[in-house]
Amino acid sequence: MALFVYTQRSTLLHRLHPAAKAVWVIAMGLVLSIYFDPLPLLVLFLVNLPFFLLGKLPWRSWSKPFGYVLLLGLVGYFITSLWLARPGVFTRYPDLVGVSLWQIAGGRFFLGPMAVTIGGLMYTAGQTLRSITLVLMIAVFVYSTRPNDLVYLLSKAHLPSKLVFIVMVAYRFFPHIFKKLSTVIAAQRLRGWELTFGNPLNMARQFLPITIPVLTETVRLSDDTTRAVESRAYGTSRFTLHHELKMTGVDWLFSLFWILVMGAFLWLYIGFGVGPL
Amino acid sequence: MHIPAGQFVVITGPTGAGKSTFLQLLNGLIPHQIPGNLLGEVLIKGRSTKSASVAELSRDVGMVFEDPDTQIVSLTVEDDVAFGPSNLGLRPEEIRSNVSQALQSTRLRGFEERNPFTLSGGEMQSLAMAGTLAMRPGILALDEPTSMLDPVGRARIISILKSLAAETKSTILVVEQNPELVIELADRVLLIDEGRMIKDGKPEQVFGDVKTMLQVGVKLPPMVEVFWELRQRGLWEDALPFTVQKAAEALRPKLHPNGPSAETAVAPTHQVEDPIVNVQRLEHCYGEEVTALRSVSVQFQRGEMTAIVGQNGSGKSTLDHHLVGLLQPTNREGQVFVDGLDVRTTPLRELIRHVNYIFQNPDDQLFQESVREEIEYGLKKLGIGEEERKRRVEWVLARFDLQAYVDMPPKSLRRGLRTKTAIASIVAMQPAVLVVDEPTTGLDRLESLEIMRVLEELSDSGTTVIFITHEMDLVAQFARRVVVMHAGNVLTDGRPAKVFSELPILEQASLSQPDIYSLASLLGWSRLPPLRTPADLADLIAGAM
To answer: Do A125 and A16 share a domain, yes or no?
Structure first.
């Protein structure tokens, strides 16, 4: 799993001040949280695309895990969309989105009517685009931002040291946990563990041989790391950096650009109702 | 007790004796991080650890833990070393200077921009030490810093410790299960058992009391064991030497010039007559950049106990993962047959009835609420009937001496028992071939020997046992055959006595002889019979006196 790992490289995004990249993530995060319409989301994705490319991401090694995330998202969103068949669920395109392409279950189904609709498909497309943009943006941010710079930035923002620690540990140990997950799966497969499909409760039980060792390892890791970082004076005083970290003209320009993009999308949302379905 | 500045103190004792607890008292992790009832007081430079926080105490006591993985928080070497000084709020130029010096002391110059997770185990532990040294503590406390490392990594850490002891005035405290590694550096040795200080004195005083050491179950330096054997036979009355060099010096004047009489009893050449595992032209590449195995061909004899040795990254684990079908060859010609089955085409659920693998960390597989359920799990998955299941569970419980823990949750047991439970749960599945990855990691001498003896018994009763290890003395004692790997190749393969006499090959693989073979080599003895334990070498020496 190569996603969400900082890698030392010399790219424009690596050279940017972490605060400038934080502005990007926060601004786009805000827009993504209120937009569901796939068309503006596609525009937003295209605006972000050059920056994803500028990071010179390891696309080859990312393709597999990213593909899994995408597939999982698509299936999940599509299944959810089947229950969005009630008239009035969508406000912006009530006539368009209510068109049923294939009726699966009628009104007496316990979760309500269930159908493949134009609206459901639009919802699936929108959610998938949101997820892709968000995952790529966070992955690029993590890929190009030194953990120490992030700790410095968060400390500067006067966040509690415990919260900063959680971010730092997540940043550092995400890949480790994925590696552990694959070891545990291998160990249990050698004891005959297999995933079989059927009753959801039984399926959940089948994951116990995987989740218990992984959770135990996560707890151990967090305990050991807490002791290790405390032993290295974490949280004693103001965090300083050994290298200069100053906002340059490019950083200001980058930040301004994303503030303008956010402004434009908020303006469309508030002024013209663009965003919801 | 009182530890004066500048002393090099080795702390030893069995697993669970209280060694780590002792170190954690020094930097305040106890009582600030780890709760409990603390009586008495620890003063560091006159300041009570109760009144200062862990972070404050870190200016005086630098702590290096066993697992380098959990101590590294940044994703470049330079950033990680700078983490401690940054937390202390030092000025940038001061941080840079401390970082530079720490990298120099730990021989990590030139690694500044490297991702720590691309480093070897020894380099990672050096990085953990650098991160601590950069904070300039007066006291350096190291908790089993070499236990998770291969021989190259161990040599690196010991060499750094030697330089630090010689060049700085730091007080150094090291918890170590292999005392022969640090014994030469020690001014003082503390022996701890069941939370009590059993012995406190100079190395010769503490390790000279062999009876107490054996009673407690601490690993003795192999040379002490050899000369203790000689003393027991009335052949040695002088002080017990700790190192191979000193042993050779002490012995030379007392030996017959013709050497040992048993020298002619050379180990027979090894031949695989009934291979149960047959690997041919096996290659494995991880992505496009890393070739882990390069056309490896090797066979394993049915019912034999074989050790695979080599430094980390030599391809040992990759080879073993192929034997159980966790990996597939990345070349067309590569073939792996186990117990007559083609691993490439046999489904895993069928393969695990014939061959199985035990991971290094028992916690990777333990999840049940009792030892019995843990052992039963694999049997249920194989579809074994209830009667047979019960019989096998009782059989492994007896074999691994786990009856007293049968209803206890495996997670609550100490590491040695967890390892036994993990191995027992696989052994109960009765595979013809058992592959075990570093079964003695994190265990003390007695626990290690216990596990290895059970594996030996299994091998004696017909199971083929293949184990990976970095412990050369265990290889000498338990393996009937050794496969040496280096850079994805099998460098040599044969009886331990033959392999341990091939010094250039061992050097190429960055391995060293067990101390008992080193002493025989230093004495100029060649064509040795199999030396499994210090007692075997004592026999040889006795014949030459």
So the answer is: yes
Shortest alpha-carbon distance between residue B368 and chain A (Å) = 8
Q: Tell me: the pLDDT tens digits for B438-449? A: 999 888 888 999
Same domain flag for A10 and A111: yes
Closest CA to B217 of B425, B76, B416: B416
Give the range of the structural domain holding residue A56, as residue numbers without chain letter: 1-145+246-277
Contacts of A220 in chain B (CB under 8 A): 363
pLDDT in tens, B373-403: 999 999 999 999 999 999 999 999 999 999 9
Does the distance separating the beta carbons of B70 and A190 come in below 8 Å? no
Residue A105 CA to its chain's centroid (Å): 33
Is there a single domain that holds both residue A118 and residue A150? no
- Nearest CA to B545 out of B237, B247, B259 is that of B259
Class of domain B8-212: alpha beta
> pTM for this structure?
0.80
Q: Which two tokens stand for residue B18?
A: 């209280």
Q: What is the ipTM of this complex?
A: 0.85
Q: Could you tell me which of A118, A137, A205 has the C-alpha nearest to residue B368?
A: A205
Question: Are residues A84 and A38 located together in one domain of the fold?
Answer: yes
Dihedral pair phi/psi, residue A244, rounded to 5°:
-70, 140
B348 → chain A, closest CA residue: A190
The partner residue sitting opposite A8, judged by closest CB among B27, B76, B90, is: B76
Query: What CA–CA distance (Å, rounded) separates B180 from B12?
Result: 11
d(C-alpha B538, C-alpha A161), whole Å: 59
Q: Tell me which of 3.30.450.20, 3.40.50.300, 3.40.50.1820, 3.50.30.20 is the CATH number of domain B270-354+432-494.
A: 3.40.50.300
For residue A7, the chain B residues in CB contact (below 8 A) are 75, 115
Q: Is B72 exposed, middle or buried (0-12, 13-18, 19+ CB in 10 A)?
A: buried
Instruction: Kindly write down the DSSP assignment for every residue of A62-91, as one continuous string.
Output: HHHHHHHHHHHHHHHHHHHHTT--STTS-S
Distance between CA atoms of residues B129 and B266, nearest Å = 45
How does DSSP assign A113-152, residue by residue?
-EEEEHHHHHHHHHHHHHHHHHHHHHHHHHHHS-HHHHHH
Q: Rounded distance, CA A219 to CA A213, Å?
A: 10
Q: How far is CA B391 from CA A190, B303, B376, B413, B460, in A?
A: 21, 23, 11, 24, 21
